[in-house]
Every structure is written in structure tokens, then in C-alpha cells.
Amino acid sequence: MGNQWRAQFDAEVTFANGGGLRTDGFRLDVPGPDIADDELAALFVRHLGLLMVAEVRITGRTIVEEPHKGGRGVAAPTGRDDTSRRRLVELSHVLTDGMTTLPGWPAPRITEWLTREASRASYAPGTEFQVGRIDMIANTGTYVDTPAHRFAEGADLATTPLDRLADLPGVVVRVPAGTRAVDRLLLAPYDVAGHAVLLHTGWSAHFGTDRYGATEAPHLTGDGARALVDAGAALVGIDSINIDDMSPAAAGERPAHSALLAAGVPVVEHLTGLDALPPAGFRFTAAPPMVAGMGTFPVRAFAVLDPT
Pick from 299, 227, 233, 222: which is nearest to 264 by CA? Predict the structure, then answer.
């Protein structure tokens, strides 16, 4: 247990709401022998959980090489490595200047409203900031559709309940290669009640190319959407260009959007990375900003996998 250190010191604490506290010969785990007094004071306050501290005066300090005992500041070793932690999986496409999401639709323009160079005139020497600007349509990158996207009186980004968008138990439906239409029978084996149902078609591999909008892009059928609504799905996502069939044969009809959004089930389109998820046992989030009067907007979609 080498190279572990503890500080021994006296401390005099003054509280912002009056009163004080004094300790003599207090011992505390520290990260190293060169810790400064202000860092030691912060560890001391955190270790004891002291509130409303105005000042801590450290005196008589010495540093001793000694195994850590554990505390809120520097924890004792647990014997576990990083593989025991939960894991986050990114499921969104990166937004970049000029990118293509839907072929033929306007691309985002990402610029700077305030450059670092220009900001220097407003701040002290050595202090600078950057403020970006993005001009884009709402259907850019990985985005969520709320009921207001389809229905004038439907819930918008600001009024769609957060429990429909965040920390949902998830299930992945693996769509066989070459399958265009995801129907009721493909969905029948899955328990989807209260879940985010993510349709993994593999089509995201074509994102940003002309093929992404091809006629054969996978989609959810209207019957499949109604089955998910009847089974109590909380959210439905897909890694394809649209939850609906966009081929000329569909004649502009959008039965999957209509069925899901009428039931208050948000739709997340243009997901990616679904191959990294297990069939179940994860939590899914795709929450947009609370923008009133808009029905769709980009999200940072991700999954949280618990330790195995």
C-alpha cells in the first residue's frame, strides 16, 4: 500500500451563519504530499459534510505516508476496476456545418456569433470566450418528433412529458438484413410496455450519402405502429431515414407517424450505433430543449448500460 498519504493538522472553522469549530490533530486522506492548505481545507469540509463554512484556517500540519482509511475526499481502494462501472453508448449523429440529413433539405450552417479574438476587447487580459451560432431546420441530425409535429393540437417540445423522453427502459428489435417493412409479426416477440423500442435496421451506415434516402430504406408499417401503441410502448426510434415508408408507392402517407404521435408516443429518427446495445437491460434518453411551438428538434440520444 505504498505512496498513500495522510495529513495531520489542526483546523479552526468559522461558519457564515455564526459560530465555529476547532479540531486538533485531525487525520485525513490526501492525494499526495504536496497538497496546498486551501485544497486540504476543501477536503476537510467535504469529509465532514460541513455546510455554510466561511473560512478554514489550517495550522500545525504534517504529511505522513500511511494507507488511506477512506472518506468523502479521497476514497480507499475498492478492489474494482473501471469495467465495473455503468457504460454510456452514444446513439446520435454528430451535427456538422453543411451536413446532409434528409437529401434535398437545407443543411445546417454553423458559425461564430462572437469569436475568441473579438471577445478580448470586452474582457480582462487573458480572458476570452466563443459564442457559436447555428442556423438549421429542426429536422437535422438525430431528432425527436413530438405529437405537435403531426397534429396542430398535439403536445410540443415543451409540453411532451419528460418521462416519455428520458431514462426509459429500452429494448432493441433486430431487423433482419434486407427487410424493408417492420410489421406486427416482427414485433410480436418483444415485451415493449413502458419501453423505448429501438428498431435496429443497420441503415445508419448510409447516413450522409445518396443511398440513405433510397426507396428501399427500412421503415415501420402502420400496422406495426398500431401494434406498438396497443402494447404500451413509451417511445419508438429507428436508425433509418424515416419511421415511415418514403417511397413513391407510399403516396405521401405517414401511417406510423400518425398512429404513434396520436397516442403521444414520441418518435426518434436517424439513430446510430444500435449495434452496440444489448437486446434489453439498458436505459434510453433522447430529450430535446423545451421549445414552445415546435414539434421536432435534434437530441443527444444515448443509452446507459448497467454493470454486468
Answer: 233
